[in-house]
């Protein structure tokens, strides 16, 4: 769909080129955001899911490992599905205000610069560091938030998803600045989030990225 957007717009992305957005088109937009968030965020949750599966497999309830892991993943993805609903609403507001182009890129330099500044500043906050620490420590999270049964696994997934959302929501909003359907921006953010959560220098990289985003935001606002 993203590649088709920059072509003739008569393929998988043709549904977006309409004068009036009815409930069906909004549902399709929500589905687009949901699929995109699953593809971007699930890889970064893989270490926690794999470790959780190993712990369940070794427990007394090891025969139900698959169900528990799916429940955990379902809770995690529900959080990002809710984020997708919010992003869908924000996109429609921006489009109605004529701040978003048909290619889903912000027209407003001021708004784009402000998003970069907000994302950069949030990277340096204690809330970001706290959420990132939880995402970077699967063993500590599982030990500290363990709940039995499938419903417990679902609730653990919800909490982990909430920590992940607290870590990455500002970065995900940068899709509006770089292009919601820009494959290069999507790939770059996916790789950065994954490295931030699993690489040894992830915490330091987060701080550096915050400074770079602030500098970029100032440049966008003043150029």
Q: What topology emerges from the helices and strands here?
A:
Blueprint: H1 2-5, H2 23-58, H3 65-96, H4 109-123, H5 126-136, H6 138-144, H7 149-178, H8 183-198, H9 202-222
Helix pairs in contact: 2-3, 2-8, 3-7, 4-7, 4-9, 5-7, 7-8, 8-9
Separation of termini?
32 Å
Number of domains: 1
User: Order of helices and strands, N to C?
Assistant: HHHHHHHHH
Number of strands: 0
Rg measurement, Å: 19 Å
Oligomer: single chain
**Main sheet: strands, sense, barrel:** none
**Structural class assignment:** mainly alpha
Helix content: over 70%
Uncertain residue ranges: none
Please report which band the strand proportion falls in: under 5%, 5-15%, 15-25%, 25-35%, 35-45% or over 45%: under 5%
Number of helices: 9
Overall pLDDT, averaged?
86
Shape designation: globular
Structure description:
With 223 residues, the chain is mainly α. It has one domain. The chain contains nine helices and no strands.
């Amino acid at each position: 769909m993203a590649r088709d957007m920059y072509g003739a717009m008569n393929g998988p992305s043709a549904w977006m080129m309409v004068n009036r957005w009815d409930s069906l088109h909004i549902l399709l937009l929500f589905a687009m955001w949901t699929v995109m968030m699953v593809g971007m965020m699930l890889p970064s949750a893989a270490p926690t899911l794999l470790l959780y599966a190993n712990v369940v497999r070794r427990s007394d309830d090891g025969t139900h490992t698959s169900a528990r892991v799916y429940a955990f993943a379902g809770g995690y993805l529900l959080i990002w599905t809710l984020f997708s609903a919010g992003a869908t609403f924000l996109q429609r507001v921006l489009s109605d205000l004529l701040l978003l182009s048909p290619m889903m890129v912000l027209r407003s330099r001021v708004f784009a610069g402000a998003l970069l500044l907000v994302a950069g500043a949030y990277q340096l906050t204690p809330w970001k560091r706290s959420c990132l620490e939880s995402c970077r420590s699967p063993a500590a999270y599982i030990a500290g938030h363990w709940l039995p049964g499938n419903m417990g696994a679902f609730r653990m997934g919800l909490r982990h998803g909430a920590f992940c959302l607290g870590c990455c929501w500002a970065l995900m909003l940068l899709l509006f600045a770089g292009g919601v359907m820009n494959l290069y921006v999507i790939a770059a953010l996916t790789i950065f989030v994954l490295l931030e959560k699993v690489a040894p220098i992830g915490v330091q990289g987060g701080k550096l990225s915050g400074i770079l985003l602030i500098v970029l935001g100032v440049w966008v606002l003043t150029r």
